[in-house]
Amino acid sequence: MTTTMDTGKSYHKQATGVAFDTVQQHATDQDITLFAGCFCPFVQRVWVALEYLGIPYKKPQELLELSPKGLVPALRLNNYGPPRALNESTVILEYLEDLASTSTKRSLLPPLSDPYARALVRLQSDHINRTLVPAFYRYLQAQDPDAQIAGGREFLDAIETLVGLFERAEREVGGTGLWKEGGKLGLADILVGPWLLRATNVLKHYRGLELPRGPKFDGWLNRLLEHPAFKRTSSTEELYLDSYERYAFNRPNTSQVANAINTGRGLP
Predict the structure, then answer these.
(1) CA–CA dist 94, 90 (Å, integer)
(2) For residue range 177-209, what is the model confidence (pLDDT) as tens digits?
(3) How many distinct helices (H) and strands (E) make up the chain?
(4) In the chain, at which residue ranges do the beta strands (DSSP E only) sit?
């Protein structure tokens, strides 16, 4: 349950900590320009993928002319004349996966020679996008104590189901992504990681959430949050606590995502 008061803080407009240093390292023109908000988890998905896949990119400020709904992330593809644009994090991730297959040769998916393992990763990904991410926002935006309790259960149930999908992949194909000790960063890791990071600070601070504990889960979460590509895109805790205060108190018109949750619509 919420134990703090709304202090009127707004979202940050500039990354902090290690993420700020990463932004400074990507200030020169490249074929790909990433337009992003520093606190946005959908952005962090794409940012982690760019870092892990080793695809050169630039990260500046403008956005609205690229994303029809004014949402981040958005990519400008400067090697076309005139430049072209992409938005929506899952679409961008598929594009980057395809791009890396012919350039850096890195991948977020099991090899093409194992289509079943790739399908299991897509099942994990579907659950994250369809269930876990909306549950995060319903929990954070809930104001009634009973709704907060129900929201916390829903979010933890979504995590438990994801763990079950990871364990299925472990039984059937030897594991996928970082759930497998010694494994490589995978698509499902990137899709869920930004919300689990925010669960460790935002949900803990505003809702008192404690994530599940256990050797397998703890090991996976540590490998994920400590992965170099993930750490390079993570700001300091203060940025997240300040930026998500408006969600925690469900201020009117906080964002298109918040409005969708409040009206029971799908996320934009």
Answers:
(1) 6
(2) 999 999 999 999 999 999 999 999 999 999 999
(3) 13, 3
(4) 32-35, 74-77, 84-87
